[in-house]
Amino acid sequence: MKSITFNHQNTSAIGMGTWHIGEGNQARTESEMAALRFGLDHGINVIDTAEMYGEGKSETLIGNVIKDYSRSDFQLISKFYPFHATPKLIEQSLKASLKRLQTDYLDLYLLHWRGQTPLAETVEGLENMVQAGLIKNWGVSNFDIEDLKELNALPNGKNCRINEDLYNIGSRGIEYSILPWQKEHNMSFIAYSPFGSDGSEYLKIAPVIQEMAQQKHITAYQLLLAWVIRNHDLLSIPKSSSVEHMKQNIEAVDVSFSADELELLDKTYPAPKNEKPLDTI
């Protein structure tokens, strides 16, 4: 498995997303658990989840998988609701997540999206959890450039390690200012929903994607994932509910593009030329 620098350490080129995992019947649950195990067994060392995912069901499923692995071998990320963003509620949410995950710490704990709680209070609560040893580091999700600048100006705001936003070939807005700003401030980026999520409901797959994938003897989804991680400077977290799809995600790490291929894709899915509102799912 190729590696990138993420959260100030060497990390697998892709992680494992877990939205909607743990919400099905027993057969589906067993398939999802097998997929996570396959990923961990084949070099993927990041799992991303949230208390929102199935109202804890995703975390519970992950806990049942990772209990059989050495905790130091992978990074575990979870997120809390914006209405749990006060110091008291952050602690309550975190302890509930840790119990479901059957672990005593998180590598990263993220504010899932911005709500009504002042950011200064949220930063205070997260710093408290670092001091308590319940999380190693913290970050945010679905933050736009102005949110990041506001956060960075707060006391301890510069301790934010991660921002996780939507990024795929059809949602490229972050390339204009967010990615450059985060690189400048040594803040890692997580790209969620490389496939547009839910069967590409939020991403129209143009014929050029299918044609190029056929030429490369890969699936359209492998091409979409390979495109997101093409520069080896961010972490993408595709979800997989089966071992077969997990294998395909891992194989996509080795897919490369020529300059002509990237130019062709850019014609159909242009890079942003100005600031755009942040895309979210």
From TrEMBL:
<dbReference type="InterPro" id="IPR020471">
    <property type="entry name" value="AKR"/>
</dbReference>
<dbReference type="Pfam" id="PF00248">
    <property type="entry name" value="Aldo_ket_red"/>
</dbReference>
<dbReference type="InterPro" id="IPR023210">
    <property type="entry name" value="NADP_OxRdtase_dom"/>
</dbReference>
<feature type="binding site">
    <location>
        <position position="112"/>
    </location>
    <ligand>
        <name>substrate</name>
    </ligand>
</feature>
<dbReference type="InterPro" id="IPR036812">
    <property type="entry name" value="NAD(P)_OxRdtase_dom_sf"/>
</dbReference>
<protein>
    <recommendedName>
        <fullName>NADP-dependent oxidoreductase domain-containing protein</fullName>
    </recommendedName>
</protein>
<feature type="domain" description="NADP-dependent oxidoreductase">
    <location>
        <begin position="13"/>
        <end position="268"/>
    </location>
</feature>
<feature type="site" description="Lowers pKa of active site Tyr">
    <location>
        <position position="79"/>
    </location>
</feature>
<feature type="active site" description="Proton donor">
    <location>
        <position position="53"/>
    </location>
</feature>
<dbReference type="GO" id="GO:0016491">
    <property type="term" value="F:oxidoreductase activity"/>
</dbReference>
